[in-house]
Design goal:
The complex is a heterodimer. Chain A is mainly beta. Chain A has no helices and 11 strands. Chain A has a single domain (18-145), classed as Immunoglobulin-like (Sandwich). Chain A has a 5-stranded antiparallel sheet with strand order 1-2-9-6-7, with no helix packed on it. In chain A, strand 6 (74-77) and strand 7 (80-83) form a beta hairpin. Chain A is globular, with a radius of gyration of 18 Å. Chain B folds into 2 domains: 8-181 and 241-321, Alpha-Beta Barrel (TIM Barrel), CATH 3.20.20; 184-235, no CATH class. An 8-stranded parallel sheet of chain B has the order 6-5-4-3-2-1-8-7. By secondary structure, chain B is α/β, with parallel strands linked by helices. Classes of the chains: A mainly beta, B alpha/beta. Chains A and B meet through strand 3 of A and helix 1 and helix 13 of B.
């Protein structure tokens, strides 16, 4: 086999990267923000490096196919909550590449126990490409359980 | 034994980035691996430390204690200009300088002798050189594809370096500019994105005949390539440069560091990059700085492939340094 001449190391015995995408595997957690019922989704920055929040152009979420109102969404990072429409102005706040964030999504009716189909999109600008400024799309879709209320 | 006059090979933590951002290797793990990967350490600012663009006192202690424990040598700090970080306009030169000041100060605080600059920062070169004087740093523009040695941009950067005339400002060639062919990994990326074999063969032919990116994109579109094919071609023309290693002679006085970019090792060699020629020229011109092993291929055992790259480098250094 051609393949065997390549240096590939110890193959499956090496440590395997944990799944890394925008939506983390953590359960959907019920929450309240400024009197509004909703849920928290754990997310990570889908880049290889920290980025200022001003590089996030857009975040979209659907639960069971139904879109979430972006006006009510909040990004919780390092103990602060940010409206999505203010991210563009936050060029001094960096999202450290190894930190997760929580996304609050307003959702009035309680989700049934069990798994739900969550789909998310984040659009960023990788702010230094030699070719200039262009958007990068990261999509993520997973079935996530609802955490028990305790 | 390596010749005392030859350059040395260390490790860029960019090699491990996929494992690092998915919690396979910690920063501490990378420092430990560096101790058996040539001991020279290059880090990527916004990837490897919290608090970027500042370097915190906490990270300074973490880094320096690792350097002490593992006997490491800081070689190069990867800074960023990030000209497109604001949504509505590009950074002004004053804002870019303000962004780079803490990065240069941080690099000096960590004990790095060299800072990698993205070429965008050429608009503030004079101010950066003045700061580098104070901090006792050398700065180098990274020459990453499409910035080949033959490109107009590199001609402009060389002219500026000559004009400023300070040994604080130089160049950091990335060996991805010395390609002889496109790697199997990158061809497979096209296949996975649904690009047909006819278009893959066409792109290889266009690349091998030195077609510009603009003309290559047009040719691929005319042959029926869709958006994904075009995006794949753009990526190829941004990774694989066709510089002649012999041209390194022309920038011999300005090389402050090198990025040993590679995509695979087959039968002990990098099949797609002209490594033997590059090492021979670096030895011939008396380069005595560092080359950082910098893997950027598909998922693999990054530690093992970094070792293989360094074995190849050191084999060529022995071959040409002792003749």
């Amino acid at each position: 086999m051609e393949e065997s001449r390549h240096v590939t190391g110890v193959g499956l015995r090496r440590p395997q990267p944990k799944e890394r995408e925008l939506l983390c595997a953590e359960a959907i957690r019920p929450s309240v923000h400024e009197g509004q019922l909703g849920y928290l989704l754990r997310i990570r920055l889908p880049s290889y490096r920290s980025l200022p929040l001003s590089c996030i152009e857009r975040i979209e979420v659907k639960i069971d196919g139904r879109g979430v109102d972006p006006e009510g969404m909040r990004l919780f990072l390092g103990g602060h909550s940010h409206r999505l429409d203010e991210l563009a102005s936050l060029s001094k706040i960096f999202w450290w590449i190894l930190d997760h964030a929580d996304l609050f999504v307003p959702w009035a009716e309680p989700l049934e126990q069990g798994e739900h189909e969550v789909a998310a999109v984040m659009v960023t600008v990788e702010p230094y490409m030699t070719g200039g400024r262009f958007p990068m799309y990261y999509t993520s879709r997973r079935r996530l359980p609802v955490a028990g209320e305790d | 034994m390596e010749s005392a006059a030859a350059f040395r090979v260390g490790i860029s933590f960019h090699t491990f980035v996929q494992d690092y951002i998915s919690f396979v290797y910690s920063f501490e793990d990378m420092m430990e691996m560096a101790s058996v990967l040539g001991r020279g350490v290059e880090i990527v600012g916004p990837s490897n430390h919290r608090g970027f663009p500042e370097v915190t006192d906490e990270f300074e202690r973490t880094f320096k204690s690792g350097v002490d424990r593992y006997g490491l040598i800081p070689t190069c700090y990867g800074s960023y200009s990030d000209p497109f970080m604001l949504p509505d306009r590009d950074l002004t030169p004053a804002e870019m300088y303000e962004y780079l000041v803490p990065q240069l100060k941080g690099a000096a605080k960590l004990g790095f002798p060299v800072v990698r600059l993205q070429y965008f920062s050429h608009v503030i070169a004079e101010k950066l050189v003045a700061l580098a004087e104070k901090l006792d740093l050398k700065l180098g523009y990274e020459l990453h594809t499409p910035l080949t040695l033959e490109s107009d941009t590199v001609a402009m950067l060389r002219e500026q370096i000559e004009r400023i005339g300070s040994n604080r400002l130089g160049l950091i060639p990335d060996f991805g500019i010395f390609a002889r062919s496109i790697s199997q990994h990158h061809l497979d990326q096209g296949r996975r994105a649904g690009v047909g074999e006819d278009l893959i063969a066409l792109a290889q032919e266009l690349w091998a005949t030195g077609t510009s990116k603009h003309d290559a994109v047009e040719a691929v579109q005319e042959a029926g390539g869709d958006e994904r094919a075009v995006s794949w071609v753009n990526m190829l023309w941004g990774c694989f440069g066709r510089s002649d290693p012999a041209k390194l002679v022309e920038i011999r006085d300005h090389i402050v560091h090198c990025h040993g970019k590679f995509y695979s090792i087959v039968d002990g060699d990098e099949p797609d990059l002209r490594y033997e020629e590059v090492v021979k020229v670096l030895v011939d011109i008396g380069y005595t700085g560092w080359v950082s092993t910098e893997y950027e291929g598909g998922p693999t055992d990054t530690f093992t492939i970094a070792m293989a790259h360094q074995e190849m480098m050191n084999r060529y250094i022995r071959k040409y340094a002792q003749k």
